[in-house]
Amino acid sequence: MGSLYPTTLSSSFHPKTLILTNSSQNPTRKPFNFRPVTTIASNSHYETERGFQFQIGDTFFRHESATGRDLGVLAAAIHKKSNGNLRVLDAMCGCGIRSLRYLAEANADFVLANDANEDCNGVIVSNLLSVSSEEDVRWKVSHSIANRVLAERYVERDLFDFIDVDSFGSDSSFFRCAFDTVKLGGLLYVTSTDGFSSGGHRPNHSLAAYGAYIRPLPYSNEIGLRMLIGGAMREASVLGYYITPLFSYYSYHGPVFRVLLRLNRGKPPHGIHYRFIGYCESCGHSQAISWDKLGQMKCPCESDVPDSLVVSGPLWTGPLHCASYLTEMHTLAGEWGWLGDGVKNDLDKLLRRMIDESDPSLPFGYIQLDEIASRAKVNSPRLATIMSVIQQEGYSVSRSHISNNAIKTNCPMSECIRIAKEIQTLPES
Ligand SMILES: C[S@@+](CC[C@H](N)C(=O)[O-])C[C@H]1O[C@@H](n2cnc3c(N)ncnc32)[C@H](O)[C@@H]1O
Ligand SMILES: [Zn+2]
Question: What reaction gets catalysed by this protein (predicted)?
């Protein structure tokens, strides 16, 4: 793609310094590539989510993605409360359920609901009409490929506070345009559904999509999140920006890896967490490997088993979440009556677990209790028991939102093995 900067502007021009909120402020803005409102698809049937009834017609829709939508809406609502504005670009909107919820629940000032498939038009329009009329100009519908709609808005200097790209597979081609089109301090909510890449089964593919050569690791579902954040981080840095993950969410339906990133200009205040990850198959020890240590990689166990050190990366090795943002989301979810409401994917449990995982002393990855048991040659320890002993010994430990039978801890694998053996000898309580 050629440069998106208008040629008449000086090279020091920075598009994000000019933020326009409505067309009356920008008489040169070209119209969106909008379709007129069409009639409602006759084969639509209705679905309900968080009390909203909407049509799905023949669009792609999954109930299982409701938690990802809840998290996006909570984050967007917090952004609106703290910034006063919320302009959302829902780049792959399907039936428009997210757009509907950003309008109705996050109180977005404006949502551009885009889906490349023109056949979605009637369903999207009808769903958005249930929130506000066309005359209110709180939403528009367009049917371009995501990169085109993002690039067009960028060229028009029509930037957004929140961009949601709910893509399939390992599509990362929109990162550059999305970073151009989100405001500084704004949020980008992105997705990967490529479980083969995160599992280390397509290293050349993950290298092409996210710039990370991923090999099989025991905590592959966390690797999927780190691969996605790392790929986004690299693209942001090309433009002179850095990103902060506000939350990272893995769901086994799909699987789906979703991350919410905040965009800022300059260098990250706490350094760049963009390194390699080494896992020793001999002893189970994991380590982060910095770029200047690439020639000296070895496991402290000095295993003589050939090729026992499995190295993946580069990827994001920093925190998966921002605890304070998650805490605000949890509080808001409580105010909205979303906690403990008996919904199967209990949001309360999920958010609490993500907050626990945000402890900065916890390293990347998680340890499956079955791996500890197998290395210790004992039965799998009870989760609560091993967590309590690890904590008593002065280490940090939490559960993982990704795996029910795993822990995140800075306790080395060798110590976890010793503890598992000792627990085995304790009398049953
Ligand atoms: C995962 S579905 C979206 C689901 C929707 N966001 C939801 O929460 O129900 C992905 C959508 O992206 C659309 N799509 C696929 N490739 C696209 C592209 N390059 N640009 C825009 N839309 C695209 C598809 O038509 C599909 O409706
Ligand atoms: Zn080792």
Answer: guanosine(26) in tRNA + 2 S-adenosyl-L-methionine = N(2)-dimethylguanosine(26) in tRNA + 2 S-adenosyl-L-homocysteine + 2 H(+)
Q: What is the pLDDT of residues 245-263, one digit of tens each?
A: 999 999 999 999 999 999 9
Distance CA 363, CA 218 (A): 15
Yes or no: say if 235 and 247 are a contact pair by the CB < 8 Å rule.
no
Instruction: Determine whether the shortest distance from the Cβ of 166 to ligand 1 is under 6 A.
Output: yes
The CATH classification number of 49-273 equals 3.40.50.150
Reading the block at residue 317, the tokens are 């090795």
Q: Are 5 and 91 in contact (CB under 8 A)?
A: no
For ligand 2, the distance from its centroid to the CA atom of residue 366, given in whole angstroms, is 16
Q: Indicate whether residue 59 lines ligand 1 (CB < 6 A).
A: yes
Question: What is each CA distance from 284 to 142, 177, 229, 242, 317, in whole angstroms?
Answer: 50, 40, 25, 32, 18
Give the H or E element holding residue 220: helix 220-238
Report DSSP letters for 110-178, one per residue: EEEEE-S-GGGHHHHHHHHHTT--GGGT-EEEE-S-HHHHHHHHHHTT--EEEEEE---TT--TTHHHH
On whether the CB atoms of residues 185 and 264 are closer than 8 A, the answer is yes
Specify the amino acid at residue 410: N
Q: Check if 5 has its Cβ closer than 6 Å to any atom of ligand 1.
A: no
Which tokens sit at 218? 């025991």
pLDDT tens, position by position, 322-374? 999 999 999 999 999 999 866 666 999 999 999 999 999 999 999 999 999 99
Q: Does residue 28 sit in helix, strand or coil?
A: coil
